[in-house]
UniProtKB/TrEMBL annotation:
Protein name (Swiss-Prot/TrEMBL): Sigma-54 factor interaction domain-containing protein
Alphabetical list of Gene3D superfamilies matching this protein: 1.10.8.60, 3.30.450.40, Homeodomain-like (1.10.10.60)
Domain of life: Bacteria
GO BP terms, alphabetized: regulation of DNA-templated transcription
Keywords: ATP-binding, Nucleotide-binding, Transcription, Transcription regulation
Length: 578
Protein backbone atom coordinates (compact mmCIF):
# COMPACT_ATOMS: atom_id res chain seq x y z
CA UNK A 1 0.00 0.00 0.00
CA UNK A 2 1.40 3.42 -0.93
CA UNK A 3 2.26 5.98 1.71
CA UNK A 4 -0.69 8.23 0.82
CA UNK A 5 -3.13 5.31 1.01
CA UNK A 6 -2.72 4.45 4.70
CA UNK A 7 -6.20 3.74 6.14
CA UNK A 8 -8.01 5.90 8.62
CA UNK A 9 -7.72 5.10 12.32
CA UNK A 10 -9.49 1.86 13.44
CA UNK A 11 -11.75 2.16 16.47
CA UNK A 12 -10.05 2.10 19.86
CA UNK A 13 -11.78 -1.15 20.79
CA UNK A 14 -10.77 -2.87 17.53
CA UNK A 15 -7.10 -2.10 18.07
CA UNK A 16 -6.95 -4.52 21.02
CA UNK A 17 -8.03 -7.45 18.81
CA UNK A 18 -5.25 -10.06 18.57
CA UNK A 19 -5.75 -10.58 14.80
CA UNK A 20 -5.48 -6.86 14.09
CA UNK A 21 -2.42 -6.60 16.33
CA UNK A 22 -0.79 -9.41 14.32
CA UNK A 23 -1.34 -7.46 11.08
CA UNK A 24 0.12 -4.34 12.71
CA UNK A 25 3.15 -6.36 13.84
CA UNK A 26 3.69 -7.64 10.29
CA UNK A 27 3.36 -4.12 8.84
CA UNK A 28 5.89 -2.78 11.35
CA UNK A 29 8.38 -5.51 10.51
CA UNK A 30 8.03 -4.79 6.79
CA UNK A 31 8.40 -1.06 7.43
CA UNK A 32 11.57 -1.49 9.53
CA UNK A 33 13.05 -3.87 6.96
CA UNK A 34 12.85 -1.08 4.38
CA UNK A 35 10.02 -2.45 2.24
CA UNK A 36 9.02 0.30 -0.24
CA UNK A 37 5.35 -0.73 -0.09
CA UNK A 38 4.56 -2.33 3.28
CA UNK A 39 1.12 -3.88 3.75
CA UNK A 40 -0.50 -1.34 6.08
CA UNK A 41 -3.67 -3.30 6.79
CA UNK A 42 -4.83 -2.26 10.26
CA UNK A 43 -2.30 0.57 10.66
CA UNK A 44 -3.83 4.04 10.89
CA UNK A 45 -2.37 6.95 8.97
CA UNK A 46 -1.44 8.67 12.25
CA UNK A 47 0.57 5.67 13.47
CA UNK A 48 2.30 5.17 10.12
CA UNK A 49 3.21 8.84 9.89
CA UNK A 50 4.65 8.65 13.40
CA UNK A 51 6.72 5.59 12.42
CA UNK A 52 8.11 7.55 9.48
CA UNK A 53 9.00 10.52 11.69
CA UNK A 54 10.57 8.24 14.32
CA UNK A 55 12.81 6.58 11.72
CA UNK A 56 13.75 9.89 10.16
CA UNK A 57 14.73 11.24 13.59
CA UNK A 58 17.00 8.26 14.26
CA UNK A 59 15.04 6.56 17.07
CA UNK A 60 16.47 3.11 17.88
CA UNK A 61 13.57 0.63 17.58
CA UNK A 62 15.48 -1.88 19.72
CA UNK A 63 16.23 0.41 22.64
CA UNK A 64 14.37 0.19 25.96
CA UNK A 65 15.92 3.18 27.75
CA UNK A 66 13.95 6.26 28.76
CA UNK A 67 16.38 9.17 28.33
CA UNK A 68 16.58 11.96 30.89
CA UNK A 69 16.31 15.66 30.15
CA UNK A 70 17.90 18.32 32.37
CA UNK A 71 14.84 19.14 34.44
CA UNK A 72 13.66 22.60 35.33
CA UNK A 73 10.24 22.44 36.98
CA UNK A 74 9.94 26.24 37.12
CA UNK A 75 7.82 26.56 33.98
CA UNK A 76 5.65 23.58 35.04
CA UNK A 77 5.19 24.50 38.70
CA UNK A 78 1.66 25.75 38.15
CA UNK A 79 0.77 22.54 36.30
CA UNK A 80 2.30 20.38 39.04
CA UNK A 81 0.48 22.27 41.79
CA UNK A 82 -2.86 21.98 39.98
CA UNK A 83 -2.39 18.28 39.16
CA UNK A 84 -1.10 17.12 42.57
CA UNK A 85 -4.49 16.28 44.16
CA UNK A 86 -5.60 14.45 41.00
CA UNK A 87 -2.35 12.49 40.77
CA UNK A 88 -2.51 11.51 44.46
CA UNK A 89 -6.05 10.23 43.97
CA UNK A 90 -4.86 8.32 40.90
CA UNK A 91 -2.14 6.69 42.98
CA UNK A 92 -4.79 5.26 45.30
CA UNK A 93 -6.85 3.97 42.36
CA UNK A 94 -3.84 2.27 40.76
CA UNK A 95 -2.91 0.17 43.81
CA UNK A 96 -2.84 -3.57 43.08
CA UNK A 97 -3.14 -2.90 39.34
CA UNK A 98 -0.75 -2.91 36.38
CA UNK A 99 -1.65 0.62 35.27
CA UNK A 100 0.32 3.77 35.98
CA UNK A 101 0.18 7.45 35.20
CA UNK A 102 2.67 10.23 34.41
CA UNK A 103 2.37 14.01 34.34
CA UNK A 104 4.44 15.56 31.54
CA UNK A 105 5.11 19.17 30.64
CA UNK A 106 4.43 20.51 27.13
CA UNK A 107 7.84 19.17 25.99
CA UNK A 108 6.78 15.67 27.14
CA UNK A 109 9.25 15.73 30.06
CA UNK A 110 8.04 14.07 33.28
CA UNK A 111 7.49 16.64 36.06
CA UNK A 112 5.74 14.50 38.69
CA UNK A 113 6.81 11.13 40.17
CA UNK A 114 5.40 7.95 38.64
CA UNK A 115 1.94 7.13 40.00
CA UNK A 116 0.86 3.49 40.36
CA UNK A 117 1.31 0.31 42.34
CA UNK A 118 4.64 0.16 44.19
CA UNK A 119 5.84 -2.79 42.09
CA UNK A 120 5.00 -1.07 38.79
CA UNK A 121 6.61 2.19 39.93
CA UNK A 122 9.79 0.36 40.91
CA UNK A 123 10.02 -1.36 37.50
CA UNK A 124 9.41 1.95 35.72
CA UNK A 125 12.11 3.73 37.68
CA UNK A 126 14.57 0.95 36.85
CA UNK A 127 13.97 1.66 33.14
CA UNK A 128 14.64 5.36 33.66
CA UNK A 129 11.15 6.66 34.40
CA UNK A 130 10.80 9.45 36.94
CA UNK A 131 11.42 13.17 37.14
CA UNK A 132 13.19 14.36 33.98
CA UNK A 133 12.31 11.33 31.82
CA UNK A 134 11.40 12.41 28.32
CA UNK A 135 8.73 10.84 26.14
CA UNK A 136 9.06 13.04 23.06
CA UNK A 137 8.41 11.21 19.82
CA UNK A 138 11.80 12.41 18.55
CA UNK A 139 13.51 10.55 21.42
CA UNK A 140 11.47 7.39 22.16
CA UNK A 141 9.44 7.08 18.94
CA UNK A 142 5.71 6.43 18.56
CA UNK A 143 3.89 6.55 21.92
CA UNK A 144 0.68 8.01 23.33
CA UNK A 145 2.26 11.16 24.74
CA UNK A 146 4.33 11.96 21.65
CA UNK A 147 1.43 11.74 19.17
CA UNK A 148 -0.91 13.55 21.57
CA UNK A 149 1.52 16.48 21.80
CA UNK A 150 2.04 16.42 18.01
CA UNK A 151 -1.68 16.36 17.15
CA UNK A 152 -2.95 18.30 20.20
CA UNK A 153 -5.65 15.71 20.84
CA UNK A 154 -6.17 12.54 22.88
CA UNK A 155 -4.41 9.58 21.30
CA UNK A 156 -4.16 5.86 22.12
CA UNK A 157 -1.23 3.66 21.02
CA UNK A 158 -1.70 -0.11 21.41
CA UNK A 159 1.02 -2.76 21.58
CA UNK A 160 2.87 -3.17 18.29
CA UNK A 161 1.83 0.34 17.18
CA UNK A 162 4.64 1.62 19.44
CA UNK A 163 7.81 2.21 17.41
CA UNK A 164 10.07 0.59 19.99
CA UNK A 165 9.68 -3.13 20.69
CA UNK A 166 10.13 -2.56 24.43
CA UNK A 167 6.65 -1.00 24.60
CA UNK A 168 4.83 -3.71 22.62
CA UNK A 169 3.31 -5.16 25.80
CA UNK A 170 1.69 -1.82 26.71
CA UNK A 171 -1.19 0.43 25.81
CA UNK A 172 -0.41 4.13 26.24
CA UNK A 173 -2.79 7.06 25.94
CA UNK A 174 -1.84 10.73 26.02
CA UNK A 175 -4.29 13.57 26.65
CA UNK A 176 -3.20 17.22 26.21
CA UNK A 177 -3.71 19.48 29.22
CA UNK A 178 -4.74 23.05 28.40
CA UNK A 179 -4.79 26.14 30.55
CA UNK A 180 -7.91 28.37 30.66
CA UNK A 181 -6.68 30.27 27.58
CA UNK A 182 -6.43 27.17 25.41
CA UNK A 183 -2.63 26.97 25.55
CA UNK A 184 -1.06 23.55 25.95
CA UNK A 185 0.26 23.21 29.51
CA UNK A 186 1.34 19.57 29.42
CA UNK A 187 0.26 15.97 28.76
CA UNK A 188 -1.29 13.33 31.01
CA UNK A 189 0.08 9.90 30.02
CA UNK A 190 -1.57 6.67 31.22
CA UNK A 191 -0.07 3.24 30.53
CA UNK A 192 -1.30 -0.28 31.18
CA UNK A 193 -0.09 -3.78 30.38
CA UNK A 194 -1.97 -5.27 27.42
CA UNK A 195 -2.90 -8.39 29.35
CA UNK A 196 -5.51 -6.38 31.26
CA UNK A 197 -5.95 -3.23 29.15
CA UNK A 198 -8.92 -2.25 27.01
CA UNK A 199 -10.21 0.83 25.19
CA UNK A 200 -11.83 2.24 28.34
CA UNK A 201 -8.41 3.57 29.34
CA UNK A 202 -9.07 6.48 26.94
CA UNK A 203 -12.22 8.00 28.54
CA UNK A 204 -10.75 7.27 31.99
CA UNK A 205 -7.63 9.31 31.17
CA UNK A 206 -9.72 12.08 29.61
CA UNK A 207 -11.76 12.33 32.84
CA UNK A 208 -8.55 12.76 34.84
CA UNK A 209 -7.35 15.43 32.39
CA UNK A 210 -10.59 17.39 32.78
CA UNK A 211 -10.10 17.34 36.57
CA UNK A 212 -6.56 18.72 36.20
CA UNK A 213 -7.74 21.44 33.80
CA UNK A 214 -10.40 22.49 36.32
CA UNK A 215 -7.69 22.85 38.96
CA UNK A 216 -5.66 24.94 36.49
CA UNK A 217 -8.66 27.21 35.97
CA UNK A 218 -9.16 27.64 39.72
CA UNK A 219 -5.50 28.60 40.08
CA UNK A 220 -5.71 31.24 37.34
CA UNK A 221 -5.87 34.75 38.71
CA UNK A 222 -7.84 37.68 37.37
CA UNK A 223 -4.51 39.36 36.62
CA UNK A 224 -3.54 36.55 34.24
CA UNK A 225 -6.88 36.80 32.44
CA UNK A 226 -6.54 40.57 32.05
CA UNK A 227 -3.01 40.25 30.64
CA UNK A 228 -3.94 37.44 28.27
CA UNK A 229 -7.00 39.29 26.93
CA UNK A 230 -4.85 42.35 26.19
CA UNK A 231 -2.20 40.13 24.57
CA UNK A 232 -4.85 38.46 22.37
CA UNK A 233 -6.17 41.84 21.17
CA UNK A 234 -2.73 42.93 19.98
CA UNK A 235 -1.72 39.53 18.47
CA UNK A 236 -4.30 39.42 15.68
CA UNK A 237 -1.66 40.10 13.01
CA UNK A 238 0.46 36.91 12.98
CA UNK A 239 3.52 38.61 11.43
CA UNK A 240 3.86 41.07 14.34
CA UNK A 241 5.99 39.83 17.27
CA UNK A 242 4.03 40.35 20.51
CA UNK A 243 4.73 39.39 24.14
CA UNK A 244 2.71 39.75 27.32
CA UNK A 245 4.74 40.12 30.53
CA UNK A 246 4.02 40.57 34.22
CA UNK A 247 5.91 39.47 37.31
CA UNK A 248 4.34 36.01 37.10
CA UNK A 249 3.42 35.54 33.43
CA UNK A 250 5.27 35.47 30.12
CA UNK A 251 3.32 34.94 26.85
CA UNK A 252 4.78 35.14 23.33
CA UNK A 253 3.20 34.55 19.92
CA UNK A 254 4.93 32.57 17.15
CA UNK A 255 6.60 35.62 15.60
CA UNK A 256 8.07 36.63 18.98
CA UNK A 257 9.26 33.08 19.66
CA UNK A 258 11.06 33.06 16.31
CA UNK A 259 12.70 36.39 17.09
CA UNK A 260 13.67 35.63 20.69
CA UNK A 261 15.36 32.27 20.18
CA UNK A 262 18.26 33.21 22.45
CA UNK A 263 17.37 32.94 26.13
CA UNK A 264 19.53 35.97 26.87
CA UNK A 265 17.40 38.07 24.51
CA UNK A 266 14.24 36.92 26.28
CA UNK A 267 15.73 37.81 29.67
CA UNK A 268 16.82 41.25 28.43
CA UNK A 269 13.36 41.95 27.02
CA UNK A 270 11.64 40.77 30.20
CA UNK A 271 13.85 43.00 32.36
CA UNK A 272 13.30 46.06 30.16
CA UNK A 273 9.53 45.53 29.91
CA UNK A 274 9.11 44.95 33.66
CA UNK A 275 10.90 48.27 34.24
CA UNK A 276 8.23 49.90 32.07
CA UNK A 277 5.53 48.12 34.10
CA UNK A 278 7.05 49.52 37.32
CA UNK A 279 6.87 53.01 35.81
CA UNK A 280 3.18 52.55 35.06
CA UNK A 281 3.21 54.41 31.72
CA UNK A 282 3.14 53.11 28.14
CA UNK A 283 6.23 54.03 26.14
CA UNK A 284 8.38 53.32 23.09
CA UNK A 285 11.97 52.09 23.45
CA UNK A 286 14.67 50.49 21.30
CA UNK A 287 16.46 47.21 22.10
CA UNK A 288 19.10 45.21 20.22
CA UNK A 289 18.77 41.46 19.54
CA UNK A 290 21.44 39.59 17.56
CA UNK A 291 22.96 42.84 16.24
CA UNK A 292 19.56 44.03 15.00
CA UNK A 293 17.73 46.94 16.60
CA UNK A 294 14.02 46.68 17.38
CA UNK A 295 11.45 49.28 18.32
CA UNK A 296 9.46 47.96 21.28
CA UNK A 297 6.01 49.49 21.82
CA UNK A 298 5.04 48.83 25.46
CA UNK A 299 1.36 49.15 26.42
CA UNK A 300 0.46 49.12 30.10
CA UNK A 301 -2.19 46.65 31.31
CA UNK A 302 -3.72 47.55 34.68
CA UNK A 303 -3.75 44.62 37.11
CA UNK A 304 -5.02 44.25 40.67
CA UNK A 305 -3.56 45.85 43.80
CA UNK A 306 -2.07 48.70 41.80
CA UNK A 307 0.24 46.41 39.83
CA UNK A 308 0.81 46.57 36.07
CA UNK A 309 1.64 44.21 33.22
CA UNK A 310 2.78 45.05 29.71
CA UNK A 311 1.87 43.94 26.20
CA UNK A 312 4.84 44.75 23.94
CA UNK A 313 5.05 44.58 20.15
CA UNK A 314 8.44 44.45 18.43
CA UNK A 315 9.31 45.75 14.97
CA UNK A 316 12.74 45.92 13.36
CA UNK A 317 14.35 49.33 12.98
CA UNK A 318 15.54 49.89 9.41
CA UNK A 319 18.72 51.97 9.30
CA UNK A 320 18.18 55.31 7.46
CA UNK A 321 20.08 55.79 4.19
CA UNK A 322 23.33 57.80 4.13
CA UNK A 323 22.64 61.38 3.05
CA UNK A 324 24.82 63.25 0.57
CA UNK A 325 25.37 66.87 1.70
CA UNK A 326 23.21 69.28 -0.26
CA UNK A 327 20.89 66.60 -1.62
CA UNK A 328 17.46 65.69 -0.28
CA UNK A 329 16.98 62.15 1.00
CA UNK A 330 15.32 59.74 -1.41
CA UNK A 331 11.94 58.44 -0.25
CA UNK A 332 12.23 55.22 1.74
CA UNK A 333 10.75 52.31 -0.24
CA UNK A 334 7.94 50.36 1.33
CA UNK A 335 9.03 47.34 3.34
CA UNK A 336 8.42 44.06 1.50
CA UNK A 337 7.00 41.57 4.06
CA UNK A 338 8.21 38.55 2.07
CA UNK A 339 11.74 39.97 1.88
CA UNK A 340 11.61 40.85 5.58
CA UNK A 341 10.44 37.32 6.46
CA UNK A 342 13.35 35.84 4.48
CA UNK A 343 15.76 38.23 6.14
CA UNK A 344 14.57 37.17 9.61
CA UNK A 345 14.32 33.49 8.71
CA UNK A 346 10.54 33.30 9.25
CA UNK A 347 8.66 30.71 7.16
CA UNK A 348 6.11 32.58 5.03
CA UNK A 349 2.77 31.68 3.47
CA UNK A 350 1.75 33.54 0.33
CA UNK A 351 -2.00 33.21 -0.16
CA UNK A 352 -4.31 34.12 -3.00
CA UNK A 353 -6.41 32.84 -5.86
CA UNK A 354 -4.88 30.32 -8.29
CA UNK A 355 -2.84 32.08 -10.94
CA UNK A 356 -2.65 35.36 -8.98
CA UNK A 357 1.14 35.35 -8.96
CA UNK A 358 1.83 33.80 -5.56
CA UNK A 359 5.01 32.01 -6.69
CA UNK A 360 6.10 35.12 -8.61
CA UNK A 361 5.75 37.06 -5.34
CA UNK A 362 8.26 34.73 -3.67
CA UNK A 363 10.64 34.72 -6.64
CA UNK A 364 10.69 38.52 -6.56
CA UNK A 365 12.83 38.37 -3.40
CA UNK A 366 14.51 34.95 -3.57
CA UNK A 367 15.55 32.10 -5.87
CA UNK A 368 14.29 29.02 -4.02
CA UNK A 369 14.05 25.46 -5.27
CA UNK A 370 10.41 24.57 -6.03
CA UNK A 371 8.31 21.62 -4.95
CA UNK A 372 4.64 21.07 -5.89
CA UNK A 373 2.52 19.60 -3.07
CA UNK A 374 -0.34 18.93 -5.51
CA UNK A 375 1.54 15.92 -6.95
CA UNK A 376 2.47 14.39 -3.58
CA UNK A 377 -0.51 12.02 -3.49
CA UNK A 378 0.88 9.93 -6.36
CA UNK A 379 3.98 8.87 -4.39
CA UNK A 380 4.10 10.35 -0.90
CA UNK A 381 7.31 8.64 0.19
CA UNK A 382 9.29 9.88 -2.82
CA UNK A 383 7.83 13.37 -2.47
CA UNK A 384 8.76 13.52 1.23
CA UNK A 385 12.29 12.35 0.46
CA UNK A 386 12.66 15.13 -2.11
CA UNK A 387 11.24 17.66 0.36
CA UNK A 388 13.76 16.65 3.05
CA UNK A 389 16.60 16.87 0.55
CA UNK A 390 15.64 20.33 -0.71
CA UNK A 391 14.97 21.79 2.77
CA UNK A 392 18.34 20.51 3.93
CA UNK A 393 20.12 22.05 0.96
CA UNK A 394 18.74 25.59 0.70
CA UNK A 395 15.68 27.84 0.43
CA UNK A 396 12.51 26.09 -0.77
CA UNK A 397 9.15 27.15 -2.21
CA UNK A 398 6.37 24.58 -1.66
CA UNK A 399 3.60 25.34 -4.13
CA UNK A 400 -0.05 24.46 -3.40
CA UNK A 401 0.66 23.47 0.22
CA UNK A 402 -3.09 23.31 0.96
CA UNK A 403 -3.35 20.46 -1.59
CA UNK A 404 -0.89 18.32 0.38
CA UNK A 405 -2.46 15.01 1.58
CA UNK A 406 -3.33 15.18 5.27
CA UNK A 407 -1.08 12.23 6.10
CA UNK A 408 1.99 14.13 4.89
CA UNK A 409 1.27 17.43 6.61
CA UNK A 410 2.71 16.69 10.07
CA UNK A 411 6.05 15.62 8.58
CA UNK A 412 6.24 18.62 6.24
CA UNK A 413 5.31 21.12 8.96
CA UNK A 414 7.94 19.58 11.25
CA UNK A 415 10.54 20.06 8.48
CA UNK A 416 9.48 23.70 8.15
CA UNK A 417 9.77 24.26 11.91
CA UNK A 418 13.14 22.55 12.35
CA UNK A 419 14.83 23.06 8.98
CA UNK A 420 17.96 25.16 8.69
CA UNK A 421 16.82 26.99 5.55
CA UNK A 422 14.03 29.39 4.68
CA UNK A 423 10.74 27.91 3.45
CA UNK A 424 7.95 29.71 1.60
CA UNK A 425 4.67 28.15 0.53
CA UNK A 426 1.66 29.12 -1.56
CA UNK A 427 -1.94 28.45 -0.52
CA UNK A 428 -5.41 29.59 -1.54
CA UNK A 429 -6.30 30.42 2.07
CA UNK A 430 -4.52 30.27 5.43
CA UNK A 431 -5.86 27.65 7.85
CA UNK A 432 -5.31 27.59 11.64
CA UNK A 433 -3.22 24.44 11.18
CA UNK A 434 -0.73 26.37 9.04
CA UNK A 435 -0.74 29.54 11.16
CA UNK A 436 1.04 27.75 14.00
CA UNK A 437 3.97 26.83 11.73
CA UNK A 438 4.11 29.86 9.43
CA UNK A 439 4.29 33.06 11.52
CA UNK A 440 4.11 35.29 8.43
CA UNK A 441 1.20 35.27 5.96
CA UNK A 442 1.24 37.58 2.93
CA UNK A 443 -1.92 37.84 0.78
CA UNK A 444 -1.69 38.44 -2.98
CA UNK A 445 -4.73 40.26 -4.37
CA UNK A 446 -6.36 38.93 -7.54
CA UNK A 447 -5.33 40.79 -10.67
CA UNK A 448 -8.75 42.43 -11.05
CA UNK A 449 -8.15 44.26 -7.75
CA UNK A 450 -4.70 45.63 -8.62
CA UNK A 451 -5.03 47.03 -12.11
CA UNK A 452 -2.53 49.76 -11.17
CA UNK A 453 0.15 47.04 -11.33
CA UNK A 454 -0.91 45.98 -14.81
CA UNK A 455 1.52 48.07 -16.93
CA UNK A 456 4.57 46.92 -14.95
CA UNK A 457 3.28 43.34 -14.92
CA UNK A 458 2.73 43.28 -18.70
CA UNK A 459 6.23 44.69 -19.21
CA UNK A 460 7.71 42.03 -16.92
CA UNK A 461 5.81 39.19 -18.59
CA UNK A 462 6.83 40.31 -22.07
CA UNK A 463 10.45 40.39 -20.91
CA UNK A 464 10.12 36.84 -19.57
CA UNK A 465 8.69 35.80 -22.94
CA UNK A 466 11.65 37.34 -24.77
CA UNK A 467 9.66 40.28 -26.18
CA UNK A 468 10.80 43.20 -24.04
CA UNK A 469 10.85 45.55 -27.08
CA UNK A 470 7.23 44.94 -28.07
CA UNK A 471 5.09 48.04 -27.55
CA UNK A 472 1.45 48.20 -26.36
CA UNK A 473 -0.97 50.82 -27.66
CA UNK A 474 -2.83 52.90 -25.02
CA UNK A 475 -6.13 51.38 -26.10
CA UNK A 476 -4.81 47.87 -25.42
CA UNK A 477 -3.69 48.78 -21.90
CA UNK A 478 -7.08 50.40 -21.23
CA UNK A 479 -8.89 47.22 -22.34
CA UNK A 480 -6.61 44.99 -20.27
CA UNK A 481 -7.26 47.16 -17.21
CA UNK A 482 -11.04 46.74 -17.62
CA UNK A 483 -11.02 42.98 -18.11
CA UNK A 484 -11.88 40.99 -14.90
CA UNK A 485 -9.11 38.34 -15.37
CA UNK A 486 -10.78 35.28 -13.81
CA UNK A 487 -7.53 33.36 -14.44
CA UNK A 488 -5.37 36.10 -12.88
CA UNK A 489 -1.71 36.53 -13.85
CA UNK A 490 -1.54 33.05 -15.36
CA UNK A 491 -4.31 33.97 -17.82
CA UNK A 492 -2.56 37.24 -18.71
CA UNK A 493 0.69 35.39 -19.41
CA UNK A 494 -1.09 32.88 -21.67
CA UNK A 495 -2.78 35.75 -23.52
CA UNK A 496 0.51 37.54 -24.18
CA UNK A 497 2.23 34.32 -25.29
CA UNK A 498 -0.64 33.59 -27.72
CA UNK A 499 -0.46 37.11 -29.15
CA UNK A 500 3.32 36.98 -29.62
CA UNK A 501 3.26 33.81 -31.74
CA UNK A 502 0.89 35.53 -34.19
CA UNK A 503 2.21 39.10 -33.99
CA UNK A 504 3.60 40.50 -37.22
CA UNK A 505 4.69 44.00 -36.18
CA UNK A 506 6.42 45.45 -33.11
CA UNK A 507 3.28 46.65 -31.29
CA UNK A 508 0.22 44.93 -29.81
CA UNK A 509 -3.01 46.58 -30.96
CA UNK A 510 -6.71 45.94 -30.39
CA UNK A 511 -6.80 43.73 -33.47
CA UNK A 512 -4.37 41.34 -31.77
CA UNK A 513 -6.67 40.79 -28.76
CA UNK A 514 -9.23 37.95 -28.66
CA UNK A 515 -12.80 39.17 -29.09
CA UNK A 516 -13.89 38.15 -25.56
CA UNK A 517 -11.25 40.47 -24.13
CA UNK A 518 -11.27 43.25 -26.71
CA UNK A 519 -15.06 43.60 -26.44
CA UNK A 520 -15.18 43.43 -22.63
CA UNK A 521 -15.53 47.20 -22.06
CA UNK A 522 -17.75 48.18 -19.12
CA UNK A 523 -19.80 45.03 -18.70
CA UNK A 524 -23.01 45.02 -16.74
CA UNK A 525 -23.01 42.01 -14.41
CA UNK A 526 -26.73 41.59 -15.03
CA UNK A 527 -26.42 41.82 -18.81
CA UNK A 528 -28.94 39.58 -20.52
CA UNK A 529 -28.63 37.52 -23.68
CA UNK A 530 -30.09 40.26 -25.92
CA UNK A 531 -27.69 42.94 -24.69
CA UNK A 532 -24.74 40.53 -24.91
CA UNK A 533 -25.65 39.63 -28.48
CA UNK A 534 -25.95 43.31 -29.45
CA UNK A 535 -22.56 44.01 -27.89
CA UNK A 536 -20.92 41.26 -29.92
CA UNK A 537 -22.61 42.39 -33.18
CA UNK A 538 -21.48 45.99 -32.73
CA UNK A 539 -17.91 44.95 -31.86
CA UNK A 540 -17.64 42.54 -34.80
CA UNK A 541 -18.95 45.22 -37.19
CA UNK A 542 -16.39 47.74 -35.94
CA UNK A 543 -13.51 45.29 -36.27
CA UNK A 544 -14.63 44.19 -39.76
CA UNK A 545 -14.84 47.87 -40.79
CA UNK A 546 -11.30 48.46 -39.54
CA UNK A 547 -12.78 50.53 -36.66
CA UNK A 548 -14.53 52.95 -39.02
CA UNK A 549 -17.66 53.98 -37.10
CA UNK A 550 -19.66 55.14 -40.12
CA UNK A 551 -18.94 51.98 -42.13
CA UNK A 552 -19.84 49.78 -39.16
CA UNK A 553 -23.12 51.68 -38.63
CA UNK A 554 -24.00 51.21 -42.30
CA UNK A 555 -23.28 47.46 -42.09
CA UNK A 556 -25.62 47.13 -39.10
CA UNK A 557 -28.29 49.38 -40.64
CA UNK A 558 -28.23 51.86 -37.73
CA UNK A 559 -27.60 55.61 -37.67
CA UNK A 560 -24.22 57.15 -36.98
CA UNK A 561 -25.58 58.65 -33.75
CA UNK A 562 -26.82 55.22 -32.57
CA UNK A 563 -23.40 53.70 -33.29
CA UNK A 564 -21.70 56.39 -31.16
CA UNK A 565 -24.18 55.76 -28.33
CA UNK A 566 -23.50 52.01 -28.46
CA UNK A 567 -19.74 52.57 -28.36
CA UNK A 568 -20.13 54.72 -25.24
CA UNK A 569 -22.68 52.31 -23.71
CA UNK A 570 -20.46 49.25 -24.13
CA UNK A 571 -17.26 51.10 -23.25
CA UNK A 572 -15.42 50.03 -26.42
CA UNK A 573 -11.90 51.34 -26.96
CA UNK A 574 -11.38 52.54 -30.54
CA UNK A 575 -7.81 53.02 -31.87
CA UNK A 576 -6.91 56.70 -31.61
CA UNK A 577 -6.04 56.82 -35.32
CA UNK A 578 -9.68 56.02 -36.12
Amino acid sequence: MAFADAPSRPSDAARFDSALRARVRQARNEFLSGSPRPDLGGVSSEIYTSWVRSRQLGVDAGSADVPLNPLSVTHARRLVDAATPVMKNLADQCKDSDAWGMLLDRECVQVFPLVGDARVVREGEQRGGGLGATFQEAVVGTNGAGISAERLESFLVVGEEHFREAEHNLASVGVPLRDPYGRMAGVLLMCQRLSSANHMIVPYTQTLAVAIEKQLALATSGDERALFEAFARHSRRPSLAVVGISEDVYIANNAAQQLLRDGADTDALREAVLAVADGGRSRLMTLAFEEERYRVHCRIVELSAGRSGVVASLSRVVAPPMLTPGRPAAPTPAVDPVARAKELGFPVLVSGEPGSGRARRVHSVASPAELDAAVAASDGAAWMAQCRELVGRGDVLIRHLDALPAILRPGVLELVRTGAHWVAATVESVSPELETTFPVAVPVLPLRERTADLPALVESLLAELGAARIRRTPEVMSILARYPWPGNVAQLRRLLAGILVRLEGDAISIDDLPREIASSGRRNLGEGLLARTERELVFDALREANWNRDAAAKTLGISRATMYRRIRQFGFQIPSSR
